[in-house]
Amino acid sequence: MTRESSPRLAAREATLAYDSTIIAAGLDIGIPEGEFTVIVGPNACGKSTLLRALARLHRPSAGTVLLDGEDIHRLGTKQVARRVGLLPQSALAPDGMRVRDLVARGRSPHQGVIRQWSAADHEAVERAMRVTGVAPLADRPVDALSGGQRQRVWIALVLAQETETILLDEPTTFLDLAHQYELLELCRRLNRDEGRTIVAVLHDLNQAARYATHLVAMRDGRIRASGPPAEVVTGDAVAEIFGLPALVIPDPVTGTPLVIPHEPPRDAVHDGEPEIPTAPATAAAER
């Protein structure tokens, strides 16, 4: 079988729900091994729920999630954690915890009653900190770091797990623009240089098109398109999936798709919004 026909991580006809509320239905997706996959789509379309399902944190109400051909929910927690690492949204460290101690938590899936901390664990932690550039911060409290530094520390924790696949749920949220690109460049290096399979949920379509090697576009709980960014990010697709009329041109720096929204019709600017008081009304109120 080819890599595409038997992905290591996949959802097959999966329905994802919270109680009786269906978030996504009939999802059929395979994560390409060795690629940087980015999942995009409007708010509340099911992106993060899909990622949680792939990480075994959300059980489908129908269908299955497969890891190496097995139902992921039939595998033990540590079995999964040795193969798939997850950075959730808004991860928080205990107060006062040092960077090195937090990163060391990534080794817990490899430990047990008999196998305790080893030289291999130490090397994995030190290497993860070097790769992410946080080694100089090793003895600092995590809560004393900037947002960009903290995100790199959390990625170091995931790297210390030494998993083949890394899932990142909106990793650029709350970061300024420079730190967003710094983090995405790190993910690109992990994919290209380390051979890690990266799956990330992103909101910024231009960032997704620039960094992804494989793009998945969702809307209303369904996958509407998947493939290379140049095939997925088109003017028609942006209008259909995001409801945004846009021109798509090659990025002058990278050649990847660049989305330039059209100016909305003038009549649509205040559609459904309360009118701003005019000058005479304001003057009358002052009198």
From TrEMBL:
Biased composition (Low complexity): 278-287
Protein localization: Cell membrane
Main location: membrane
GO MF: ATP binding
Ranges for domain ABC transporter: 9-245
SMART domains linked: AAA (SM00382)
Listed InterPro entries: AAA+_ATPase, ABC_transporter-like_ATP-bd, ABC_transporter-like_CS, P-loop_NTPase, Siderophore_ABC-ATPase
Name of protein: ABC transporter ATP-binding protein
